[in-house]
Every structure is written in structure tokens, then in C-alpha cells.
Amino acid sequence: MDTSAILHDAGLRVTVQRIAVLQALALSPHSSADRLHTAVTGSGIALPTVHAILGDLVEAGVARRVSLPDADRALFEVEPDDNHHHMQCVRCGRLETVSCSVGAAPCLHPAEDHGMRLLEASVTYRAICRACEEASPGR
Q1: What residues have CB less than 8 Å from 116, skipping those under 6 apart?
Q2: pTM for the structure as a whole
Q3: CATH number for domain 3-66, candidates 3.20.20.80, 1.10.10.60, 3.40.50.300, 1.10.10.10
Q4: Which of 3, 27, 93, 115 is deepest in the core (most CB within 10 A)?
């Protein structure tokens, strides 16, 4: 992944901090700002700077913010143009990417658009992963 080119093409200034955060995010999709901060901790990047960089990446369309039901923080991923959904285990929190059955965004259309131009539809499948199911008492 040529992070410098991605940042440049998105109109963002190419900095060591942005490169570090973007590379960490590419290596660890569905990460929180805290987790990314831990990943780049040797770079001397402060947590507020990681938050600011993530905001810049999302605003520029380089990354996507993923908000999940019952989550205490947002997660981020580097696939903003890949139309997909997520499946989350309600017990352990494991998160997996699920391909959209239609392919093109938005893949769902509401009965009423209220005069708004629909950009995307976000679906989160809530599930129990196999490991949690097998670990359940009574199995």
C-alpha cells in the first residue's frame, strides 16, 4: 500500500504521523483510535493526534468510520469505497466483513427519502460466533 500516494491523491498533506496511522489501520482493520494509538506508540504520536488524523482520513474519503450497536467507540477501516456490511458476535465482539448482496451503494432503499440523497446503507448483522456458541454452558 503506497500510503504517501493515497494521502496525496486525497488532497491531504503527507506527514510521518498520517503515514504511520494509515499503515497501522491497513494492517489492523476495524480498529479503534486507542488501538491504533497503541500500534503507533513508538512513533511518539499522541492520542489526540491519532483522533485528528482519523477524522482527516474519514473526511477525505480514505477511511471509513464504523459505528456498531452497543459499541463504546467507533472503529475505522481503510475500505471506504468497498460496499460491504459487518457481522458482529454479540458475546465476544468479533467483527467480520460481509459482502453486500447487491454490490453497489446504497444497497438498501428506504420507503421514504425525506428529500435527502441517499449515500449509503449500513447493515450490521448481530450474531454469535462459533467459538462463543461452543463455549456456552449446556453444550
Answers
A1: none
A2: 0.75
A3: 1.10.10.10
A4: 3
